[in-house]
């Protein structure tokens, strides 16, 4: 009986092992269960704030002060969105923000591609110094350049107009410009030099080779820089609030003004205790509604380009090489 049982175990052990661990590690049940568990945990961490904001933004004032209501509102309450829609001057502010962010992003793509190609394909004296300066501008806080940039903008009469964002982007000094230059640099380095040498032999100059040979081969870099740059300029409030002087108002700027206005009401109505000051709850609901409205264009854009964006990140090699 014992030997018969032992033989049955030996007989079925390969299939059991294959079921739990698979022919390869990535095929087995254990690997899949572990992978999906980790992904579910990380997904919950990222989705929880959005779900919480959505839940609170759909609550009425009575629901917000009712301790028995935590996630699901008693009824669908849309007044928070109606009020913030008017306060954020939507949809006109969406158009303004998209034009501002789109123009700045296009400018920084042009400058980053040119500088990245020059660093990747040409050797010149002081090239290492340029790399050091790029890393320096990427590492140090942007507030360090605030005063000298302010002096330059005053001299060039750039304050109060879109040039305050476009001109630095065109000259390779825009938001996160050093990172974008390094991304293009990495892609241009991966292009076989034999292609460019063949173009030179056919009589093509540096600019024509850049336009006809190099640019078509670095499409993923445009997707990475475009998506990342657009989101940065869309959410930018520090530079836009100061340099645009309120003459051009973006959605994040209007959202900040709305939050400050409610903050003053809360402070004047007494304290920061939710149990004693229900205005805190009301303010939170309005701000959450405005936040969700402000990120809708970015979410739609990413949903549209996510397949190409993920493939571009995978091809770039900037995460692990």
Number of helices: 15
CATH architecture of the largest domain: Orthogonal Bundle
Number of domains: 2
Please state the structural category: mainly alpha
Range of strand content: under 5%
Q: What is the alpha-carbon Rg in Å?
A: 27 Å
What percent of the residues sit in helical stretches (DSSP H or I)?
Answer: over 70%
Shape summary: globular
Output the helix-strand order.
HHHHHHHHHHHHHHH
Nearest-integer average pLDDT? 78
CATH topology of the largest domain: MetI-like fold
CATH superfamily of the largest domain: MetI-like
Stretches where pLDDT is under 50 for at least 5 consecutive residues are: 5-10, 317-321
Largest sheet: none
CATH class of the largest domain: Mainly Alpha
Compute the number of strand runs.
0
How far apart the termini lie comes to 59 Å
If you had to describe this structure to a student in words, what would you say it looks like?
By secondary structure, the protein is an all-alpha fold. The protein has two domains: 2-57, no CATH class; 82-316, MetI-like (MetI-like fold, Orthogonal Bundle), CATH 1.10.3720. 74% of the residues lie in helices and 0% in strands. The protein contains 15 helices and no strands. The chain has helices at residues 2-21, 29-57, 61-65, 79-87, 92-121, 127-139, 146-156, 163-170, 177-189, 193-201, 206-214, 219-235, 238-243, 251-269, 279-316. Helix 12 packs antiparallel against helix 15 and helix 14 (251-269) packs antiparallel against helix 15. The longest helix is centred in the C-terminal third of the chain and has 38 residues, at 279-316. It is globular, with a radius of gyration of 27 Å. It starts with a helix and ends in a 5-residue tail after the last helix. The model is unreliable at 5-10 and 317-321 (pLDDT under 50).
């Amino acid at each position: 009986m014992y030997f018969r049982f032992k033989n049955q175990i030996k007989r079925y052990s390969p299939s059991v092992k294959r079921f739990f661990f698979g022919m390869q590690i990535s095929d087995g049940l254990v690997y899949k269960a572990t992978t999906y568990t980790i992904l579910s945990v990380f997904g919950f961490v990222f989705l929880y704030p959005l779900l919480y904001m959505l839940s609170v933004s759909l609550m009425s004032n009575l629901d917000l002060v009712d301790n028995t209501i935590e996630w699901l509102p008693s009824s669908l309450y849309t007044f928070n969105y109606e009020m913030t829609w008017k306060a954020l001057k939507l949809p006109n502010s969406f158009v303004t923000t998209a034009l501002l962010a789109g123009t700045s992003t296009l400018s920084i793509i042009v400058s980053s591609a040119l500088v990245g190609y020059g660093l990747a394909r040409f050797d010149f004296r002081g090239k290492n110094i340029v790399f050091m300066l790029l890393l320096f501008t990427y590492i140090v806080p942007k507030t360090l350049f605030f005063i000298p940039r302010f002096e330059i903008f005053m001299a060039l009469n750039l304050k109060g107009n879109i040039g305050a964002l476009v001109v630095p982007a065109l000259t390779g000094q825009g938001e996160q410009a050093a990172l974008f230059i390094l991304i293009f640099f990495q892609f241009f380095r991966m292009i076989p030099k034999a292609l460019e040498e063949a173009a030179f032999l056919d009589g093509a100059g540096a600019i024509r080779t850049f336009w006809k040979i190099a640019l078509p081969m670095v499409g993923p870099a445009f997707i990475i820089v475009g998506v990342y740059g657009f989101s940065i300029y869309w959410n930018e409030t520090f530079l836009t609030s100061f340099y645009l002087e309120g003459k051009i108002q973006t959605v994040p700027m209007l959202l900040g003004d709305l939050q400050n206005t409610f903050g003053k009401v809360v402070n004047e109505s007494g304290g920061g205790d939710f149990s004693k000051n229900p205005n805190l709850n009301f303010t939170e609901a309005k701000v959450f509604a405005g936040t969700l409205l402000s990120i809708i264009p970015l979410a739609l854009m990413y949903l549209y380009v996510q397949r190409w964006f993920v493939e571009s990140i995978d091809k770039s090699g900037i995460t692990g090489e």
